[in-house]
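Give me the fold.
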Amino acid sequence: MWELLLPSVTGVAAGVLNAMGGGGTFVALPALVACGLSPVTANAVSRIALVPGAVASTWVYRRELTQVGPVPTVRLTAVSGAGGAVGAALLLTLPASSFDTAAPWLLAFATLVLAVGPRLSSGLVGALGRPVGMGPRTLLAGQFALAVYGGYFGGAVGIMMLALWSIGLGLDAAVTNPMRIAQLAAVYLTATVLFLAASDALRTPLLLTAMLAGAVLGGWSGAHLARALPPRALRAVILTTATATTVLYFLRD
């Protein structure tokens, strides 16, 4: 029961965090490692499990999706999906030891983005007096790079998307949050196809099902709660979780 309770509760928490501001990877990945999975398998299982939650959140936000700058939503989503597939392929192709070595540093980088990303975005925009003014090609290239990172690891990738759109286009994070969730769903979905076909994720069906069920509940409820919880309080919770997880990963190594 403990082995099923932990991923279920963690799935709920990860779904809520992803729907409200990002950071689901920070709770999903270490919980699955604690259940005995290798980091690579845990990463694949968490990505698969979080897909339905992201889709559920996108459905809740479906009427609030807005185009990101000059790029049509269909094209942006296609680029996100392609990058997610490339990132997943890298995770499955590179030696497992590469991810084991990179995971703590990726967590540290993602935590740094969570901590200073919004201030950096507003600082750059304030210094320039205007957004950078990204064209469609530059925006799509940046989106593809983030999607590759999202397919390979995923920690704080949604925060990075909001930062890219804020710096490059001057878009408000609150307005683009629904689109962030939709793009995360695209990244996770294509990565999931490869993970189901080539990873060991299906060898732990009970853990996968437990986290998946929790993530759906969390993604659905989190999208509704996001409208009520103050953004500052939410960021504090996510940042605390991210920092603690990063420290634990370095101590573990």
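The chain has ten helices and no strands.
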